[in-house]
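In the laboratory, one determines a bound structure by crystallizing the protein with its ligand and collecting diffraction data. In a computational setting the workflow is compressed into a single prediction: the sequence and the ligand go in, and a structural description comes out. We illustrate the idea with Z5A.
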Amino acid sequence: MRGKFITLEGIDGAGKSSHLTFIAERIKQRGYEVFTTREPGGAPLSEKLRTMLLHEKMQPDTEVLLMFAARREQLLETIQPALERGTWVICDRYTDSTYAYQCGGRGLPEGRVQVLEQWVHGHLQPDLTFLFDAPLTVARERLEKGTANPDKFEREQSEFFAKVRDAYLRRAGQYPQRIKVVDSSRTLQAIQADLASYLDAL
Ligand code: Z5A
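The predicted complex, in structure-token form:
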């Protein structure tokens, strides 16, 4: 049986990466194999593209094309083979990030991303997505404490992240079955209680 595909989303500093291990452990306890990865990245070439994407200034169109090139590479190299083996895959960010950052944040028309999405993974959508949501002030405060060398996205201003957050919440409204909004301004324990109940249901 094909494994389940779970993605984690949220604005920078919302706290999604903090829960990756918890989610993986919860699934392993049920006897499943788990593979964790991230975007952009996860395959050797995709990791090289990640370095460019996070650190080099580029046109918004170039950015979105490289995001999907990195995605296609890791999908064929790692995610799809794992799912076909029955392994559950947890990916830190996926195409909802593109709608949030490139369309919401940078203002790229959604139609362009829809075309690329269809091409790159029209056949493969996540089974479950956690959207870790927190007010901008909370996310910024956490980020400032933990980031020594901010990347190109982390250096964006609050207005950019406000647009990214709005775009995420709009998508959650469009896909309520798949995208579960988790209030991540709470304690780790309170958040993990919510995650556990969604995962057990899946
Ligand atoms: N990007 C894009 O534009 N388009 C795309 O299609 C894709 C990506 C796929 C990837 O960077 C960048 O690429 C990303 C968008 C763009 N923007 N940025 N930057 P990344 O993967 O390196 O970065 P990230 O995913 O945003 O950041 P992160 O480091 O993984 O952060 P996080 O997951 O949001 O937060 P965290 O590391 O779990 O937590 C941040 C801090 O808060 C940390 O010190 C924690 O200990 C603390 N924390 C977390 N939760 C709590 C709670 N509940 N209470 C107290 N403190 C907490």
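The first strand starts at residue 5 and ends at 10. Keep in mind that any predicted model is a hypothesis to be tested, not a measurement.
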